[in-house]
Specification:
Length: about 180
């Protein structure tokens, strides 16, 4: 097992867009294994490479009996329904707030061997795909919270033992959600 430290909110790598993977080599397979082992050990539903300090477009997931990884993922919305519900992040430990996401998405990408992969996600898996892809764009789920909830979240984060006191940065996702950001 190769468990790595997870980068926490405030680390600049979490706000930097990741680079597309071009080499489907042994190093990528090691990264996927490290992501999987770290996600599993931490009890997470997903983990993106930037959360380990690696600026590559890769994430792992294990949700509702579905497990795997995606390299260079993209996703599209299926239908027009949304879900509101609690969302957390391994980079913001032990905190959750209600966040709005698309109910159904289809993600496309590649596996660690360069073979095409398609994942149809609904409910929690759809939430995970959107959340982890946001990480690859340097976006955190805090950026998707309504203004009042975001203010509450920032107050709670500033009081958390793990927060280093830096100036938190909020940004908006390049992915559209309910007509705005």
């Amino acid at each position: 097992m190769t468990v790595q430290p997870i980068r926490l909110f405030g680390d600049p790598v979490l706000r930097t867009a990741a680079t597309e993977v071009t080499d489907f080599d042994a190093e990528l397979r090691i990264l996927v294994k490290d992501l999987w082992d770290t996600m599993t050990e931490a009890g997470g539903a997903g983990l993106a490479a930037p959360q380990l300090g690696v600026g590559l477009r890769v994430f792992t997931y294990h949700v509702d009996g579905f497990a795997g990884h995606l390299v260079n993922p993209t996703w599209t919305v299926v239908g027009e329904e949304f879900q509101d519900g609690p969302e957390g992040c391994l980079s913001i430990p032990e905190m959750r707030w209600d966040c709005r996401r698309h109910l159904d998405v289809v993600a496309k990408g590649w596996n660690m061997h360069g073979e095409p992969v398609e994942v149809e996600g609904t409910n929690t898996l759809a939430r995970c795909i959107q959340h982890e892809t946001d990480h690859l764009d340097g976006v955190l789920f805090l950026d998707r919270l309504d203004a009042e909830t975001r203010k509450q979240a920032m107050r709670e984060i500033r009081q958390a033992e793990w927060f280093d006191g830096g100036v938190p940065i909020l940004k908006q996702s390049p992915h559209p959600l309910f007509g705005g950001k």
